[in-house]
Amino acid sequence: MKDLEWKDEYLLGIPAIDFQHKRIFDCLLRIAHGATDDDRLRAEAEIIKLLRLLQEHFLLEESMMQKLHYPDLEHHSAEHRQFHSDVHHLGQTSLMKKGGVPREAIKIAHQWLTEHLTVSDRHYMEFFASASNKSRRTKKPAK
Q: Is the whole model's pTM more than 0.70, yes or no?
C-alpha cells in the first residue's frame, strides 16, 4: 500500500491542482483499503467520490489549459475522459463481483495516475511556465 501514497515528486507547483491530486491519491488509497468483500459499500462510496474528484479536477485543469491556449488540450482532455471512463467501468464491474475491487485494477489506476502526473501534466506545466515567461518579457514597465 505504501506505493499508492502521495509523493512530493508529483507536485506541479499550482496549489489548487496539487491539492486535488493529493485528494485523488488519498481516495485511491481508501479504495485499496476497502477492496475486500467486507468493505464493499465503503469501496463503492469511495469510487463514487473518486469519480466526482476526477470530474472536478479535470474541469479545473482543462479550463486553465483553455485560458492559456494550451496546444495539446484536445489530447490531454481525451486522456482525462478515458481515465474517467475506465474508473467508472472499474466501479461497475468490480463491485458486482465477489471479492470487491481487484488489487490489479487499483494498481493500474495508480500507474495511470502517476504517469499522467509525471508526463502529461508536466508538459502543460512547462507550457504554462514558458507562456508566463513570454508574458513577462513582453510587458513594458509602467512610466
A: yes
Say which residues have a Cβ less than 8 Å from residue 24's Cβ, sequence separation at least 6: 50, 53, 54, 57, 113
pLDDT for the residue 2: 66
Question: Cα-flanking dihedrals φ and ψ of residue 139, to 5°?
Answer: -75, 135
φ/ψ of residue 11, rounded to 5: -60, 135
Position 86 pLDDT exceeds 70 = yes
Over residues 93-106, the mean pLDDT reads 75
The second-level CATH assignment, the architecture, of 12-125 is Up-down Bundle (1.20)
The three-state DSSP-derived secondary structure of 54-116 is HHHHHHHHHHHHHHCCCCCHHHHHHHHHHHHHHHHHHHHHHHHCCCCCCHHHHHHHHHHHHHH
Domain positions in the chain: 12-125
Measuring CA to CA, which residue among 4, 91, 101 is closest to residue 49?
Answer: 91
Q: Check residue 102 and give its pLDDT.
A: 77
Q: If you ran DSSP here, which 8-state letter would residue 13 be given?
A: S
